[in-house]
Amino acid sequence: MHSMEDVIRQQAHLLRDEMTVQLQRMIRVATVNPPGEHYEDFVALFDTWLRELGYETRIVTVPEALLPVLAPHAEGRPRPSVVGRIDGPAGPGLRLHLNGHYDVVPAGDDWTCDPFAGEIREGRMYGRGAADQKSGLVMQVLAVEALRRAGVRWRGTITQSAVPDEETVGNRNAGMGYLVEQGIISRNNTDAVIITEPFGVDGIGVGHKGAIWGRLTVYGRQAHGSSPQLGINAVELLVEAIHRLHSELSPQLAVRLSPVDVTPTESSASTLSFDTIHGGVATNVIPARAQATFNRRLVPGETVKAARRELTTVLEKLAQDNPQFRYEYEEFYTVEPTLVSTNEPLAHIMADILRRQGMTPRFLISAGSDDQRFVVHGARITNAIIYGPGQTRLAHQSDEYIDLGDLLKGIEMLALALYHLLR
Ligand SMILES: [Zn+2]
Description:
Elements: H1 4-14, H2 16-27, H3 39-52, E1 56-61, H4 67-70, E2 80-87, E3 95-101, E4 120-121, E5 124-126, H5 130-149, E6 157-163, H6 176-181, E7 192-195, E8 203-208, E9 210-219, E10 223-224, H7 234-254, E11 261-263, E12 271-279, E13 285-286, E14 289-298, H8 304-321, E15 326-335, E16 338-339, H9 345-356, E17 362-366, H10 372-378, E18 384-386, E19 401-403, H11 404-421
Bound molecules: zinc ion.
């Protein structure tokens, strides 16, 4: 005797060939972002696949006039998303949205294979986007297929979306951000959201750290390099500012820990780092201007506002102590930390499924930010998790791969979760 769960798992396993073919096809469309290449090719591929499977689809395109705002790095290239909807055979019920991003970061160097071929070696498929996160897109579609092919009479509505521009952040963006701004995903039409970023088959993402990306510019006064005392050295003042910020803030940040495990685990505390620095024009000129960009990462419990105040307080104090210190503080990207409760229905059901399949679920937040920010802060939907089969540590690496066994397992787990969610 077979339970429905057994039938669903069997059907998931029968999808292995289709899974491999579809993933390979997706990896072969090099959707490199920035600047966003071959987006229309990918969208055509995904749209066709959904329509073949019986979805009603639409392609949502950002109007050209909005591109400079939503995708400043796009150089005018189009920013399409695919949204496909399918209704359950048993009538209305939960309105579930499954989402993944189809853009990938540039391949970079040191690959031992073609990053856009989808080569298979020892049960792994290699390629840019194999883990982050074209395998997630394959999983979100095939999990629904496993249900259908098992003959489950599920109730509710499933919306699938594939969006661009997750990798290039931005306070607003042309992918998930745009879908939320347009109300295509809102509290009125969506009860639950699963984003298929790679947190591992046993990982359940319940949020991500926040961030302030900013720029600190220090102004001095130019003078001949032979007479530094006649000028004000902006490079040296900037160095002093960086030192002061680190010595006053970093010890406090190091002990501010995320209440939930972070992936990767080394990133569980708040941090501040300075990542670029520019200043001066020549070795015999005292520099009048120096600039550094910084990256402040926030754990849940912190706010952008409080983190900003900490930074500017140190700078203000420095300006009081040293009247020559003149500076400008700017921010170009901010995101609040995101954390949803592990008691939200999706998180709870997913954990339960993983446990019953012999796994130990890991609730995690991501060290980076991801599109969950738009869902939780923009659409205010908190019944939202990340679940995807790839390994976080392989994202953005050379020789990125997905273990095809893990992908199949992900399809199976998500299918079982859908079965329980959509009864
Ligand atoms: Zn991703």
